[in-house]
Design brief:
Blueprint (H helix, E strand, L loop, with lengths): L2 H5 L9 E5 L2 H4 L12 H6 L17 H15 L3 E5 L2 H4 L9 H16 L3 E7 L5 H4 L8 H17 L5 E6 L1 H9 L11 H25 L3 E8 L2 E3 L5 H24 L4 H11 L8 H5 L5 E6 L3 E5 L15 E4 L14 H14 L5 E5 L8 E2 L2 E2 L2 H19 L4 E7 L18 E4 L4 E4 L1 H12 L3
Parallel strand pairs: 1-2, 1-13, 2-3, 3-4, 4-5, 5-7, 6-8, 7-10, 10-13
Antiparallel strand pairs: 8-9, 11-12, 14-15
The structure holds ligand GBH.
Family: Belongs to the glycosyl hydrolase 1 family.
EC number: 3.2.1.21
Enzyme class: hydrolase
């Protein structure tokens, strides 16, 4: 790509939604306050050896007590939308049954503070913090968890729905199902491939049940967020590499997109699901439920996937059913997570969604990167993060120009925070957090993003 194109100014459509995203367990802390019970992430992070540095979300960014300061920072940045998540174990401490008003009081205060600042709240109901008590009954492998989720969704809606216009059921069901139940990288840390496929189905069922009830209750916008990755074959002329890419695309993307948007499992994925589980957990009517109408699809994009066919490869634990597939490291620059940087991958992905699954508008609900801090005097000069965000925004803009119905972009993340199995050392924030003092400092990227938002262009 030539330099003129990379630096030419681009302007987004009028009304494009700009914002930032966070998640409850990653920022709130206050793990034992106001009636909150443990989630699977408390259990997981408190188990020695599962999270880098032995870090937990017990305190995190102490956002539970500092939310007003954090909203003030967002106001300063000029963000129009704040995507946060609600912690299920604060709202329904026993997983099912009575609602805990003190748990909802926190979100009540947060939402009022946001509205006061002119920021539209976008609430995600499930960003991975399942009440531990439900995991003790099988977690997402248990169909009853889907019903419990829909009940929790309505409890949250009844308290906040008069002021929260936008509801997202799940964040990244692929991570919940496959990292949680197949590879064990995430809570609950199980390594049972069959369980992962059951979990994936019940997560989507929970989405469908909740989406329907939220809509009936009057929610203005209902959505679900998936983490997608364009999957490329090493050699596009090699039939085996192309088949390997299709398999991984199925397990990463289509196994969620097709049920959610088209109301069916793709044939090749149904075959894999049946091979691992027998398919008995999929009941009559489930797919119609899962295919509940949504107002937009949330897409989280971080990186592409590159694969090739290789006889004898065991495949990846994160993708059961990938025997004979080799996962390759693309020859690309990397973030501080060692993830390949590929803005064109976002363009490819958006074009494909716009083509295959046309009916649904899209919002990028997460995009961002972790890099080591570069401290120069008083400033945190995170030029690499600015470069990452700018290149991905240009790719998103190209998709808009190509006709993709992209309505908004939310940067991950407002704050440095608890980066799941990596703990606090990986920093994705536009705003730096000093965990010893809880002091917040805008990084250079935050000032840059403020300009992007205020001009609707870069
Ligand atoms: C998102 O997940 C999450 O929604 C958010 O909470 C998180 O903080 C953010 O991204 C940054 O990570 O196991 O090393 O092979 C991103 C989805 C899923 C992307 C796991 C990387 C494989 C990494 N991630 N995936 S690895």
């Amino acid at each position: 790509q030539d330099r003129t194109e990379a630096s030419a100014s681009v302007t987004f459509p009028v009304g494009f939604r700009w914002g930032v995203a966070t998640a409850a367990y990653q920022i709130e802390g206050a793990a034992r306050e106001d009636g909150r019970t443990p989630s699977i992430w408390d259990t997981f992070s408190r188990t020695p050896g599962l999270v880098d540095g032995g870090h937990t979300g017990d305190v995190a960014c102490d956002h539970y007590h500092r939310y007003a300061d954090d909203v003030a920072i967002m106001r300063e940045l000029g963000v129009g939308t704040y995507r946060f998540s609600i912690a299920w174990p604060r709202v329904i401490p026993d997983g099912t049954g009575p609602m805990n008003p003190r748990g909802l009081d926190f979100y009540d205060r947060l939402v009022d503070e946001l509205l006061e600042a002119g920021i539209a709240p976008m609430a995600t109901l499930y960003h991975w913090d399942l009440p531990q008590i439900l995991e003790d009954r099988g977690g997402w492998t248990n169909r009853a968890t889907a019903d419990a989720f829909a009940d929790y969704a309505i409890a949250a809606y009844l308290r906040l729905g008069d002021r929260v216009p936008t509801w997202t059921t799940l964040n990244e069901p692929w991570c919940s199902a496959f990292l949680g139940y197949a590879s064990g990288n995430h809570a609950p840390g199980r390594t049972e491939p069959d369980a992962a496929f059951r979990a994936a189905h019940h997560l989507m069922l929970g989405h469908g049940l909740a989406a329907r009830r939220l809509r009936e209750a009057g929610a203005r916008e209902v959505s679900v967020t998936v983490n997608l990755s364009p999957v490329f074959p090493r050699d596009a002329r090699d039939r085996h590499d192309v088949e390997a890419a299709a398999r991984v695309d199925g397990l990463h993307n289509r196994i969620f997109l097709d049920p959610l948007l088209l109301g069916r499992y793709p044939a090749d994925m149904l075959e894999v699901v049946e091979r691992f589980t027998g398919g008995t957990h999929i009941q009559e009517g489930d797919l119609a439920t899962i295919n509940a109408p949504i107002d937009f699809l949330g897409v989280n994009y971080y990186m592409p996937t590159l694969v090739a066919a290789k006889v004898g490869e065991p495949g990846s634990a994160q993708f059961p059913g990938t025997e004979g597939v080799e996962f390759l490291d693309p020859d690309l620059p990397r973030t501080g997570m060692d993830w390949p940087i590929d803005p064109d991958g976002l363009h490819v992905l958006l074009k494909r969604l716009g083509g295959d699954y046309v009916k649904t508008p899209i919002i990028i609900t997460e995009n961002g990167a972790s890099f080591p801090d570069v401290v120069v005097g008083d400033e945190i000069e995170d030029t690499e993060r600015i470069g990452f965000l700018a290149s991905h925004l240009r790719a998103a803009h190209r998709a808009v120009t190509d006709g993709v119905d992209l309505r908004g972009y939310l940067a991950w993340s407002l704050l440095d925070n608890f980066e799941w199995a990596y703990g606090y050392d990986k920093r994705f924030g536009l705003v730096h957090v000093d965990y010893a003092t809880q002091e917040r400092r805008l990084k250079e990227s935050a000032r840059w993003y403020r300009r992007v938002i205020s001009t609707n262009s870069l």
